[in-house]
Batch of 3 targets.
Target 1
Amino acid sequence: MAVLGLTTYRQDNNIKSTVLLLLFPLLLLTLLGGIFFAGGAFVGPREIFYSLQIEPVLGTGSALDLALSAIAAYWPIILGIAAVWVLIGYLFNDAIIHRATGALPLTREEQPELYNLVENLCISRGLSVPKLYIVDTDAMNAYASGIDTRSYAITVTSGLLAALNKDELEAVLAHELTHILERDTRLLIVTIVFVGMISFLTQLLWRSMRVAAFSRGRGRNQGGVMIFLLIAAIAAAIGYGLALVLRFAISRRREYQADAGSVALTKNPDALISALMKISRNPDVPHVGSEVQQLFIENPPSTFTLAHLFDTHPPIEKRIKVLEELGGRVTDTIETAPAASAAIIAEGSTPAGSENHRHGPWG
């Protein structure tokens, strides 16, 4: 455990969260400058200076002068937008994430055993008990979310509850609780909020420029239309590049750390190995966007070699290998789910969202 450096990792996450908060307005200003630089390079800076009545900073009338002048003129607006967006993310991050995944709150009456497992884990670390949610899907997955005690939550799928036994479920809950304990959820949600805003602004800009270009292009030369669309494409590329930079700030090592934290909490690496092997059979929750999928305990790597650079999770095989180093072992046969869950799976006709399907074997 000392080699994995859980305490240092937590401190790194706190630093990264702070840095991202500080970088967010700078990234937006960079996007703004890039757009105006492209506009000046392809349309002509003098025309834009005249149209927008922007005061030149350098006085050279170049594309670079236009970019710096636009930043100087519009930075209060950009900082205001960033502040409002951060405030929205802080106040409503839990609602935004759960709406994106379709998660519904769980009560103790619906899942007493699940609540007991989480409470016992929290007591062992002196933590407040997070809220519990469920996503009604046959897929097997789980995620932790939230940025503070008010919004911390652990969400599981109904398919996960139906497939895992008590020890395996406890191991998964301990994994997600470690994400909360190590501040992974805070860092991930800050990133999701920022990437979401950059993507939103990029799409808004693209659509606005496309509409403006085609409306101006009717009955006129199509060269201007192509220039406008080219500027929009460059802006979209800049926005996408900035979003990738933010994603790269999140280390895939967090899953190894959370696996190690689960072992530290449960002292049962075998249960987590068995749970991961089961989850790997059907982890996909197709209605959830890629930005949010990085929260899940498993987000399968891309099948394309080059695309592995953008994977949010290490392969299950590598995670299991690390768990073996922590004392776990891979058995030839995975323990089957409890009889109650096996009956639910066998029924097949149980409608999604019904009480039995929602509760799984523990309710």
Target 2
Amino acid sequence: MDSFSPIKTVTQQLTSMVKSTFQLLPNIFIAAVVFIIFWFIARFSRRLIKNFTKRKKSRNLGLVLARLSQGFIILVGAFVALAIIVPSFKPGDLIQLLGVSGVAVGFAFRDILQNFLAGILILITEPFVIGDQIVFNDFEGTVEDIQTRATTIRTYDGTKIVIPNAELFTNSVKVNTAYDKRRLEYDIGIGYGDDIAEAKKIILEVLQNAPEAISDPPPEALVVDLADSTVNIRARWWVQPPRRAEILDSQDQVLTELCNKLVAAGIDLPFPTQQILFHDQTEETDGDRTRQREGWPSVKGNNPQPRRISDSLQQLTQVRNSKNDENNNVRHG
């Protein structure tokens, strides 16, 4: 009889568990229905908030409120469902437990929480929105999604880049589409013998007739540098909208037209050139050395004298012959 007592105990426990499960089935069914209702309410509230804020042009703020409201409603639904299944369950006990363990969780998931808070602040402050074209470090592209953990951008060559929100929030980000217009500029070098006023006139005519350029603010042509080989004129014009595709199209049209018009008008677009002066290979007819300014020092009575190439070659031959004679004497001596 004693040998069957453990089996009997296990059987009784299993029977009790099955009975309690069957007793809880109505509660489990009700809890599931309640949770599903809360889940649908959460989805409906998220969609409602997004649509409302979309009309108000606060898309990022709508994303924040929609996600927070959905998560809060689902969490409340989970607490209510647990309270139906387990009547002894008290949400206050769970909240107290989470508060005690919150410090440990915070240290363990510090980076995750930092990105989450940074994402919330980005969505609220809106330094950029979905659809903006931004530059961050070596990455440039269009913002596709702003989540609470990371921001996703699509580069112009079709690459997906995921950037943690903490890095975006604590570092500098260049937003190319923050305003409705953007200025482009390009330096054009003309020869020193060309007419600067005529070149500026041609540049302004091209900029004023460019399809993508706008008239307000007006285009400009400014001399910005007297370089080694060219006079640099900076062409500046504004485009609208300031997106990457429009900017490339405008730059292509403007530079092509500028090159054709300047060349047709006889304006030189010189290559970088360099002049080398060999002072010891000039002829005597080049002029008075004391009046030349290529870098020679002008000292009275001690000015460098010009030499012909033939004289230098003759002197080099004499030095070589004298060395050969010395070597022959050494061998025969």
Target 3
Amino acid sequence: MRPFRIAELARRCVVPLAAAVPFLAADIAGTQNVPLDEGRFVILRNGERVGTESFWIRSAGSGPDARVIAKGEISLELPGARRDIALALEMRGRDMTLSAYEVKVSGDQQQEVAGRVVGRRFSARVVTAGGEQLREFPAGPETFVLDPGVAHQYYFIARLRERAPVTVPVIEPQDGRHTRMRLSVVGVEPVTVGGIRIEAHHLRIDDPDGGEHHVWIGPAGQVLRVEVPARGYAAEREAPPADGSPEDRA
């Protein structure tokens, strides 16, 4: 997909990108909201611990006025380098339709992505050490953001498990990638989280270019574990969700 010139993209967007995603430093604490999930993952690369991911997901409003924000902070200690990533994702409406996304990467890599959905397009501004680029991707009612190495974002695509198998559009804004992935259900099996065994739904997401993603989901849809074998990536939740259903001590 070709990058758009700034002037060309400005003509096509109804809302200026400069005002697209003002919520990275904000939250919805000032409104009556419902916590959907909150926790921390340990991040593994080829079996070795390399960092953590802390996150929360909250909703406010209902029906067509519903608003869900997911925020995360990732800290990575890589060989000879450190990387910090701050993310904020907004979904709107009864069906949690993608609305806006922002990510800031600092440390050994420097990158900022800020974008929002205008009409049926996701328009994003990407700033790196090499300069600024504007990108556009198709974005229908069931388009998901799934940036590599971000565990809590699987929460949204996992909501479709009762309709599986199903194929959905997926955007990876940091990599500038748009593809279609197929969600299917493997079965129900126990996962140990913080010494507690939880009966989890094992989901598989097939990426035509990146292999299989395996995701284990708790009783209320919380992400417990993620594995992407082709990337050597795994994320393990440190403690059970607040409203999980522990079966017994492992």
